[in-house]
Specification:
Number of helices: 3
Order of helices and strands: HHH
Structural class: mainly alpha
Helix content: 55-70%
Distance between the termini: 18 Å
Radius of gyration: 12 Å
Length: 52
């Protein structure tokens, strides 16, 4: 598997593990659709982003 695909796979896994179903329902109140939402809070998302 090429390096970029490994990074993408790892990133998707981290997002899925960090997600919160309660956050997803709260996001719906603001018009954010839950189809491709993991429910990751911004501070967690920033921490993940710093790794990459």
């Amino acid at each position: 598997m090429p390096k970029i695909q490994m990074i993408i796979h790892s990133l998707k896994k981290q997002l899925q593990e960090s997600g919160d179903s309660e956050s997803i329902s709260a996001m719906a109140k603001f018009g954010i659709t839950p189809e491709q939402t993991h429910g990751v809070k911004i501070p967690q998302l920033r921490g993940i982003a710093k790794e990459y």
